[in-house]
Amino acid sequence: MDQLQRLKLFTKVVERGSLSKAAKDVGVGQPAVSKAISAMEEALGVRLLLRSTRTLTLTDAGRQYYERCRQALAVLDEAHAEVTEGDVPRGTLKLHGPVVLGELFLGPACVAFQRQFPQVNCDVTLLDGFVDLVAEGADLSIRLGTISDVSVVRRRLGSMERLLVAAPGYLKTHGVPKQPQALADHRSVRFSGLPSGNALTLSTSSGPVTVEVPPSFLSNNAVTLKQALVGELGIGLVTRWLVEDELKRKKLVVVLPNAPPGSLEVSAVVPTAKYTPTRVREFLRVLTKTFAKVPGLTLTASGSSDLA
Q: Helices 30-44 & 19-26, crossing angle to 10 degrees?
């Protein structure tokens, strides 16, 4: 096993957190992985990993070495992609995105993309949660909300209008709130992954107002939240695209229309700023066309042309 293979194997072990998982990923036996790591440690004269029967922990030297290895391998991958892909998208587009947004919009965009570029394979994973693009080997992640992770490269695609809504039956029974503070006395339907927790900030004519609204119904799935709202379980914060049909059919109505919540940012996240593969650039152009038809989604000026 040459030095480059050992570097790749070491980074894979760190990112997978397991010798056996790394061995399975690269198609070798676990003893070969263990032997390669030991050979690296002997050559370097330092311990990189602390291994036990159940845990694997980086030493300080190992952590520093991993960061350098990851940077070096990223440069090599970029150079390889630049040479082999050129102006024609090829290879595998590995994409991550939120579940419901993915089902409704990312999925159709992927279908349209592959019909246009059949030489590209698509690998689409939908989940609501953080994705380590480097560890997953992903090209691109579509994320909602503010991104504070400084280790990733973010391209803002646009913003999604959000609304407070409730079923007419709920409002008939519990009353219609006339001001933001009244929300504290109502039942609340909320997405469990909101970083703001129970704090809800609304824009009023006199400035932003923040109200603590304890939830009576929590879920990490947008469709489930919509079902709870239609089922008259309370007032909830949603994106317009999620409930556009229900608003048109009067199954849901907007609450406090003169005090709207802030919009939700939608971004494309890539693992490196130095090189964006052609397949990613072309997919983002296709995705822009899909997003242009999403109710309540406003694209950025750059997002309407060249996103990459």
A: 110
| Whole-number Cα distances in Å, 39 to 69, 131, 197, 253, 266 | 16, 31, 48, 66, 45
CA angle at 128 for the pair 13 and 96, rounded to the nearest 5°: 60
CA distance 264 to 249: 24
The pLDDT tens digits of the residues spanning 85-118 come to 556 787 889 999 999 999 999 999 999 999 999 9
Please give the model's pTM, rounded to 2 decimal places: 0.67
Q: Is the dihedral of CA 7, 11, 17, 23 positive or negative?
A: negative
Task: Return the structure tokens found at 169.
Answer: 């039956």
3-class secondary structure, 97: strand
Domains of the chain (ranges; CATH) run 3-84 (1.10.10.10), 86-156+265-304 (3.40.190.10), 162-254 (3.40.190.10)
- The single residue listed with the structure tokens 């990189």 is 48
Degrees, nearest 5: CA angle 34-38-44: 150
